Known about the structure:
About 40% of the residues lie in helices and about 20% in strands. It has eleven helices and ten strands. It has helices at about 5-20, 25-35, 40-45, 50-90, 110-120, 135-140, 180-185, 225-240, 295-300, 315-320, 340; strands at about 125-130, 135, 160-165, 170-175, 190-200, 210-220, 250-255, 260-265, 285-290, 310-315.
Amino acid sequence: MDINRLQNLKNQAISSILDSKSERELEQIRIEYLGRNGEITQFIKQIPSVKDEKRKQMGILLNDTKKAIEDAIKNQSSIISHQSSVINSEWFDITLPGLRPPQGHLHLITYAIKEIAAIFEKIGFNRVAYPEVEWDWYAFEGLNMPENHPARDEWETFFIQDLSSPKYGEAVLIPHTSSGQLREMEKIKPPIRMLNIAKCYRRQYDVSHIPMFYQFEGLLIDKGINITHLRGVLDYFAKQFFGPKRNSRIRPHHFRFTEPSFEVDVSCGICEGRGCKLCKGGWLELGGAGMVHPQILKNGGINPEVYTGLAFGWGVERTYIMKSGLNIDDIRFLYNNDLRFLQQF
Length: 345
Ligand code: PHE
């Protein structure tokens, strides 16, 4: 048996194993050397004819050779499979155009606020901002709602602990944007056309109430302002915001800071005023409005003999939800920050 030739075959086999680039090539090499008629197998078949003393030695040598080739194949096979997984996972085409990161959009209520502000700006209302942490005087007392007055219970209020002023009373988180009325009157002389949009706070939480929400408040003070102007402004808003087919109406109500006071409704967009299960006889409630009470004008340093005014204040979220086509049956969805909800709009 030619030991040199065996050594050469082993070297040859190992070097072609190391050169091989695929499982298929490896398999061919295995067949070539270790297959049924493979080069090494030929040697193994000769063992029985080798003389006694040499037979054991040859057996060991052939076994070692066979094992060395098998190990080399195994090793190379794992290198090949690692390389192909790297190629699959890390290779990329640098000429492909980049992926755009997903683009978000403003929050629904931010859109609503922009839209409402734009509608009132067109008819001359100026957007203002006043404190959200406010004195009792501006939120209640100065609006004809003295402490302990039952009307005040409707505005379930958050109080700021240990903060009060001898002149203006306790500090509260504003429960409505009407607190901006006296601030505006103190700041500018009539004519006043104010649009106050702000976060308001009340102790409430259910499908139609949240503790922090937005209101928008209109205040118009000038000579000769009367209810027809109020009707005109309300109708203009209803048509601009909800659509040209929508109407508004006012119903008598009571607020301490307006006289007369009204509840404002907009005609239902679903049944177009005929009446359906989503509305009350064809109407949806928007919020409060009225003619500014003479005492409030006085509190704001304005002579009620000369000037009159109109005011209205509604929740932004409520008003937005009423827009037809939006079937949001829980106001809290707006602020859960669930993208599955927000991305629909
Ligand atoms: N501030 C009242 C509320 O929060 C609404 C309102 C505003 C009523 C202006 C009349 C005039 O309910």
